[in-house]
Amino acid sequence: MKDVFGKDVEYLKDKKLFLLDMDGTIYEENRLFEGTIEFLDKIRSIGGRYVFITNNSSRSVTAYIDKLNKMGIHADKEDFFTSAQATALHILKNYPDKNVFCMGTRSLIMELKEYGIHITDSVEDTEVLLIGYDSELTYEKLRKASQILQTKEVEYIATNPDKGCPVEFGLVPDCAAMCEMFYMITGKRPYYIGKPEPTMVNYVMEKYGNTKEETVIVGDRLYTDIKTGINAGVTSICVLTGEATLDDIINGDVKPEVTLDSIRDITKIL
Ligand SMILES: [Mg+2]
């Protein structure tokens, strides 16, 4: 079996851990792509594991489970890894017991609390400033985050480096666009956790005990999904069912290791 550029891709048979993007890869908005259920069944039948990874920190895992269940995919908590979870683990590992001011949704704050992270509302007590994709943003939060950045020495992190989040009419400001507001007045930018940083991939490999050689990331966006694979040193598969086109791959500088028309082609190889 060869990919769309004629590359021999039989070696994909040896992969065990499949990190899957969702929108544009297994579904489009609310329409499941044909072959998705067979693809997931196939991974399980060869003794592999799949994990859905997403940069969206505004929705909880429960909301994603509901969405996939409605589409006929059985999924539970263990099958997901969001930038919110990665952020929580990052904080626990690097800044345990520190007080975190979170400019994010109530859902993100609740998730962080479940991990035992200390959340504070007080500028004075803040030791870590965390910015998420905050669809409940208020000027009060912007003001406090600005004050923290200008009056204190804190760790400055953000859940995901996406500039815009797709909605019906186009894009609304996502996490990085919000952080750029602070850059314009302070000259400071955060350390980003989500795709294309390798952090999420590293955490999932560590959690399930898989090596880089056994791991593959599948997605439709070159600058997030595929770049993540490159940054993490794992195989990347670009499927042409979402954002990236063949022209983008030929003319762009982010090159997937493997390019296939859809996930149905991966099923055939496995
Ligand atoms: Mg996608």
What's a concise summary of this model?
With 270 residues, the protein is an alpha/beta fold.
Overall description:
- It is a single chain.
- The protein is α/β, with parallel strands linked by helices.
- It has 2 domains: 10-55 and 196-269, Rossmann fold (3-Layer(aba) Sandwich), CATH 3.40.50.1000; 84-192, Rossmann fold, CATH 3.40.50.
- Helices cover 37% and strands 20% of the residues.
- It contains 10 helices and 15 strands.
- The chain has helices spanning 36-45, 61-70, 83-94, 106-114, 139-151, 175-186, 199-208, 222-232, 246-251, 263-269, and strands at residues 17-20, 27-28, 31-32, 49-54, 80-82, 99-103, 118-119, 128-131, 155-158, 164-167, 170-173, 191-192, 215-219, 235-239, 258-260.
- A 6-stranded parallel beta sheet has the order 5-4-1-13-14-15, with helices on both faces. Strands 7-6-8-9-12 form a 5-stranded parallel beta sheet, with helices on both faces.
- The protein is globular.
- The termini are close together.
- The mean pLDDT is 95.
- The structure holds magnesium ion (MG).
